[in-house]
Amino acid sequence: MMSGVILAGGEKAIARALRRIDGERAIEGMIREMQTVCQEIIIVTDAPKLLLPIVPRSTRILTEYLPGCGTISSLHAAFALSRKNALWVVDSEAETVQLPAAAAVTLNERRRMQGADAAVVLRNNEPCPLFGVYRQGCLEAINELIRAGESRVSELLNKIAWVGMDEAELTASQQVHAYERSIRHDDWSHG
């Protein structure tokens, strides 16, 4: 059982997530894909009013309640309020739309089999912390980062046990295909 978590950011990021790709808003495509394997969908944003008329009523829209640490604060909101033990985390601004649901299932299986706190996608041998499945227990490490005033998501991986899975390996093993979208992200980096 997983919660799907979309980190949607503020107004600028949401504007990108609302762009249409193949006739569908990018964020609608993310939600649709997540609904195939997630029993709960959470969106964390600073601008919930922009999404309320767009997303399904069953989607939980959260704001940061411990602001000041950027994406770490967003992760805190999702992990603190998730109803599931595993969280499939994605960034709405990423250049590549998240791997299909089958990849999230594979990441979660790898995480459990290895006894890890998280399994993240490796792109060019670099971990992508916002393309992964995490154990809800990572909240403790997120809390530590917030107490330290840390905002870099990459620091989360330094505090937890994680495994990586190459993006190409995921697509080959699951017969899934990452697909590109035209939305660029100018303001976000992996840390």
TrEMBL record:
Coiled-coil residue spans: none
InterPro entries per the UniProt record, alphabetical: MobA-like_NTP_Trfase, Nucleotide-diphossugar_trans
Pfam families, sorted: NTP_transf_3
UniProt entry keywords in alphabetical sequence: Transferase
Span of domain MobA-like NTP transferase: 4-157
Gene3D superfamilies named in the record: Spore Coat Polysaccharide Biosynthesis Protein SpsA, Chain A
Domain of life: Bacteria
Protein name: Molybdopterin-guanine dinucleotide biosynthesis protein MobA
Organism for this UniProt entry: Paenibacillus konkukensis
